[in-house]
Design brief:
Elements: H1 3-73, E1 75-82, E2 89-98, E3 104-115, H2 122-150, H3 152-166, H4 171-174, H5 177-190, E4 198-203, E5 208-211, E6 224-228, E7 238-243, H6 247-252, H7 259-315, H8 323-354, E8 362-366, H9 367-384, E9 389-393, E10 399-403, H10 404-420, E11 430-437, E12 440-447, H11 454-457, H12 481-491, E13 495-501, E14 505-513
């Protein structure tokens, strides 16, 4: 599959996953917003109903007290009149309520009862008078009580007097805080809210007159307020403030069922991204593998062809077999066989390290001496380019505990790369330096070659990776040299890093532990 096709599929699926995730987040936000609005409305309605109940309770309490006082102040008058013409006896009953200053604001008069003594026996007259008077008195009392309570004009004046008297009292005497707490809780439960709350009662100018026993400031950032006695003069009003410590948990409890779906979506998105990364990595490895096979085929073909040609010449009777010719052909076969064996061993070494089958034969070596010997053997190749090797030996503690063969091969690979990637038709200079840094022994190999681009520096230690050389086509290899170097350095508890600048050269710096007595 082409890389562009993979990118198109990955982009479409990635946008689909991100869109789905954004839709879920938007849905959760909308649900939380709606829940918050419902919560606000329910709390405000509950507080309003609780404040109304507080005012109604106060009014009822004053009304009840005033009715009792009025009943005690009520008076009645009875009158008897005798008609001189026919001897009819008329009884009249009057019931009245008066204020403290004597003003009568409620008065009732029962209609007259007329009785003719000549037509009624004496005993009946006495009995009738007593019964009618008693029943009339009870009826009048009941009528007065009902009319007093329900007559609008009278109630208006009574309520006015009640409010005028109540507003003069301090707020803490007008409010039963325990009953207010019960009313608030009951109204909240009626509106579907059953979570802990804390409240305070303050005067209109902000002075606190009550605080619930378990009050805390948690959740106080969002407080609901309600005015108490809002018909009173402004200085006489009160304010109840309430907040909910668990409000956020209550609001988001309605959207918790969406959390698993979001988690699954995120997991799928991460899995998808990981899958795409793996696909691109495998594609890159596949391309590297194909390049490696092509390079290996080309590298192996050259020594095999040389050996085959030398063997044919030895078997060809038409070719003269002088001692010089035989020596030359034998040398070609020997050199190409060594080259072929070196190439095969390099591949086998990396395979062996990947399987972790490598066994080191470590021994004590002097790094300064080892580098000088390798520099001496490379001097001819470097001088052939017109350059020179410069050594700067500054390490005092230069003893290391390494496998001589593998470690020497690693250093050789670094210097061999410097020769391979030199500037065409320009002399190559190599600078080798050693020094001590705390408990570490360090050395660097710097060249004046082509250099490496910054984006390629972090990849050069990858197996099979080869830096593109532009117009330089004679550089051979499998892309295993630096991977082998890094593997060897790491197995010796060392570190290697590369610094390079295109056109100026490359520097490899290696840090190793100094020889320890307990090393084995």
């Amino acid at each position: 599959m082409k890389k562009s096709t993979i990118w198109i599929i990955a982009t479409i699926m990635g946008l689909a996953f991100i869109g789905l995730l954004l839709l879920q987040i938007s849905y959760i936000e909308e649900m939380a917003k709606m829940k918050k609005e419902q919560f606000d409305e329910s709390v405000n309605r509950s507080l309003y109903q609780a404040s109304r109940k507080l005012e109604m309770n106060e009014t009822a309490r004053y009304l009840e007290k005033d009715v009792k006082d009025t009943e005690r102040r009520a008076f009645k008058q009875d009158s008897v009149m005798v008609d001189g013409l026919d001897g009819t006896v008329k009884h009249a009953h009057q019931f009245a309520v008066a204020a403290d200053d004597g003003t009568v604001y409620s008065s009732f008069e029962l209609k007259t009862f007329a009785i003719k003594p000549a037509n009624v026996p004496k005993a009946m007259i006495l009995r009738t008078d007593k019964n009618s008077i008693s029943e009339a008195t009870k009826s009048l009392q009941e009528i007065v009580r009902n009319r007093y309570v329900y007559q609008k004009a009278l109630l208006d004046e009574v309520v006015y007097n009640i409010l005028y008297t109540a507003s003069d009292k301090p707020l803490k005497e007008r409010v039963n805080f325990k009953m207010l707490d019960q009313d608030i809780r009951a109204e909240l439960q009626n509106n579907g809210i059953n979570i802990p709350y804390h409240f305070t009662v303050e005067t209109s100018d902000g002075r606190e007159v009550y605080r619930c026993p378990d009050y805390t400031d948690e959740g106080k950032d969002y407080t609901y307020t309600q005015t108490l006695f809002h018909n009173d003069p402004s200085p006489k009003m009160g304010v109840v403030k309430i907040h909910f410590p668990d409000m956020n948990s209550y609001i988001f409890s309605s959207v918790r069922f969406m959390i698993p779906s979001m988690i699954f979506t995120i997991v799928l998105l991460i899995t998808f991204v990981f899958t795409i990364v793996v696909i691109f990595r495998q594609k890159r490895y596949s391309e590297i593998k194909n390049d490696f096979i092509n390079n290996m085929t080309h590298e192996l073909k050259t020594p095999i062809s040389s050996i085959s040609l030398a063997a044919q010449m030895l078997n060809d009777d038409s070719v003269g077999k002088s001692p010089a010719m035989l020596k030359h052909l034998g040398g070609v076969i020997n050199d190409e066989s060594k080259r072929l064996r070196f190439l095969v061993e390099k591949v086998l070494q990396m395979s062996m390290f990947d399987r972790k089958d490598a066994a080191f034969k470590k021994k004590e070596l002097d790094l300064n001496e080892l580098l000088e010997n390798i520099a001496s053997s490379f001097s001819l190749r470097v001088e052939h380019t017109g350059g020179k090797i410069y050594t700067e030996i500054e390490a005092v503690d230069s003893a290391i505990y390494v496998d001589e063969v593998h470690f020497q091969n690693a250093i050789t690979n670094l210097m061999d790369n410097a020769v391979k990637y030199r500037k065409p038709d320009q002399p190559l200079d190599l600078f080798i330096k050693t020094w001590n840094e705390k408990e570490r022994l360090c050395f660097s190999i710097r060249d004046t070659g082509l250099g490496i681009k910054k984006e390629n520096v972090k990849k050069i230690f990858d197996k099979f990776y080869r830096v593109h050389t532009g117009n330089v086509h004679d550089v051979k290899g499998f892309g295993l040299g630096l991977a082998y170097v890094k593997k060897i350095i790491n197995l010796h508890e060392g570190e290697i890093k590369c610094e390079s600048e295109v056109g100026k050269g490359t520097t490899f710096t290696v840090s190793l532990p100094i020889l320890r007595e307990d090393a084995n």
